[in-house]
Design a protein that fits this description.
Elements (H helix, E strand, L loop, with lengths): L1 E4 L5 H9 L6 H17 L1 H11 L11 H5 L7 H18 L7 E5 L2 E9 L2 E5 L8 H14 L3 E5 L9 H9 L4 E3 L3 H10 L9 E3 L4 H10 L4 E2 L7 E6 L5 H12 L6 E6 L2 H16 L4 H11 E5 L3 H11 L3 E5 L4 H4 L7 E4 L5 H6 L25 E9 L1 H17 L3 H12 L4
Parallel strand pairs: 1-11, 4-5, 4-7, 5-6, 7-8, 9-10, 9-12, 10-11, 12-13
Antiparallel strand pairs: 2-3, 3-14
Length: about 425
């Protein structure tokens, strides 16, 4: 664990916090580059080769049989199936509020408007590895469905040779018919470029580890992606009114994701920081994923004392966390000051876990400071905005001098001529 006082911490220490202390991404890029290029050129042959090497794939086809998807809910406890369905319902209810509006209006020059067109085919990546993320299937697929996407496919690495039933059940609940048991850079490349088995998609969304993120970066020139995601992170702003048990549990929940995860506590109260550190250490000893937590905590559990809540906001906005928890006496009073955060959780009862699973907001969020310029996955990620216009003859006469003036200033004489031609040619 790392502990600082913002007044006495060095510039280097503060900068280290802001950088998340992550190692170079270059090794993942180079490893992914080889896989992506070979899958792009060889299709299934390369995808199978790498799936056997990294995923433990042993079958002949990546495609999960439709019957296996349809019957997945029957192989799970009813309570879990009900939880998945209720989570999907709440995610849909929230994301239905995000649907971009079409519009059309007339002015003195003609008619202008905007069409909203859903993407045709989307690929979802659901992580595997040390945990199974059925919730990520819901978080990516539900807003895509709300947006009107007709074809959604899912790629996920198999665990012990097969796709987890909870992931298949989630796919069934949101109506995904195509599921492929393939992960890593080979899955990203297959979705981006297509293989004999997997048809290419228009966009790839969903979280993944370093190799998946590297592959998404490599294919983004050919296939759209949501954003490049790094390790999970939370930043908590607390005061003397906060509960150290709840603060510690929130930090533990984030650090159990992986050994590169980050949990930062900013507080105006020295006693709350000390109490939270003590509770964190005690709770970590009995945590189910304590080995991961212990390793992550070495550099990723950060306690920083600030002189005021406004200073905490400043540090938070500079950090631009994936998850921002504001656990203070009056959390709503700080919301207006939040300028960069993937998702905000207000008050002591608003655990990040609720946002991760079932409150309705999306858990596919920008990390590594990308919240300065990127947003949570939303319905907007699955639609295209198509502007249109019909200019009248009279309108062309009014707009032409403006267009000519600007085109000539830019040295684009053909543009100027096209605008001039509309003044006297054609009918309305």
């Amino acid at each position: 664990m790392l502990s600082y006082d913002v007044e006495s911490a060095s510039i280097e220490e503060i900068e280290q916090i802001m950088r998340r202390g992550q190692a170079s991404f270059q090794r993942s890029i180079e490893r992914a580059r080889t896989i992506v290029e070979e899958v792009r050129k060889e299709g299934d042959a390369a995808a199978v080769r790498y799936a056997r090497k990294y995923d433990g794939f042993e079958g002949r086809s990546f495609a999960v049989p439709a019957k296996c998807i349809e019957t997945a809910p029957s192989r799970l406890p009813q309570q879990l199936v009900s939880a998945l369905k209720e989570s999907a319902r709440r995610i849909a209810a929230y994301h239905e509020k995000q649907i971009p509006e079409e519009f059309e209006f007339k002015d003195s020059c003609g008619v202008l408007g905007q069409k909203v067109v859903a993407l045709g085919r989307v690929g979802i990546y659901a992580p595997g590895g040390t945990a199974s993320y059925a919730s990520s299937v819901l978080m990516a697929a539900v807003p895509a469905r709300v947006a009107g996407v007709k074809e959604i496919i899912l790629c996920t690495p198999p665990g012990n040779g097969c796709v987890d039933n909870s992931i298949l059940a989630a796919a069934n609940i949101v109506g995904i018919k195509e599921v492929y048991s393939i992960g890593g850079a080979q899955a990203v490349a297959a979705m981006a470029y297509g293989t004999e088995t997997i048809r290419r998609v228009d966009k790839i969304v969903g979280p993944g580890g370093a190799i998946v993120t590297a592959a998404k970066q490599l294919v983004r020139k050919d296939c759209d992606i949501d954003f490049l995601a790094g390790p999970s992170e939370v930043l908590i702003i607390a005061d003397s009114n906060s509960d150290s048990n709840l603060l510690a549990s929130e930090m533990l929940a984030q650090l159990e994701h992986d050994t590169d995860a980050v949990a930062v506590l900013l507080s105006t109260s020295k006693s709350i920081i000390e109490e939270t550190k003590n509770r964190f250490e005690e709770m970590a000893k009995g945590a189910g994923r304590r080995q991961i937590i212990r390793k992550a905590a070495e550099k990723g559990a950060i306690f920083l004392r600030v002189r005021s809540l406004q200073q905490a906001l400043q540090v938070s906005n500079d950090f631009a966390p994936e998850h921002l928890v504001i656990d203070t006496r009056e959390p709503w009073s700080l919301l207006d000051g939040v300028k960069a955060a993937g998702s905000v959780f207000l008050g002591r009862w608003s655990s990040v876990a609720f946002g991760d699973y079932c409150s309705g907001t999306n858990h596919v969020l920008p990390t590594m400071g990308m919240a300065r310029s990127s947003s949570a996955l939303s319905v907007s990620d699955f639609v295209k905005i198509v502007p249109y216009q019909q200019i009248t003859r009279k309108g062309a006469g009014r707009l032409a001098p403006i267009a000519v003036s600007l085109a000539e200033a830019e040295g684009l004489t053909a543009h100027a001529s096209a605008a001039k031609a509309r003044i006297h040619g054609g009918d309305e």
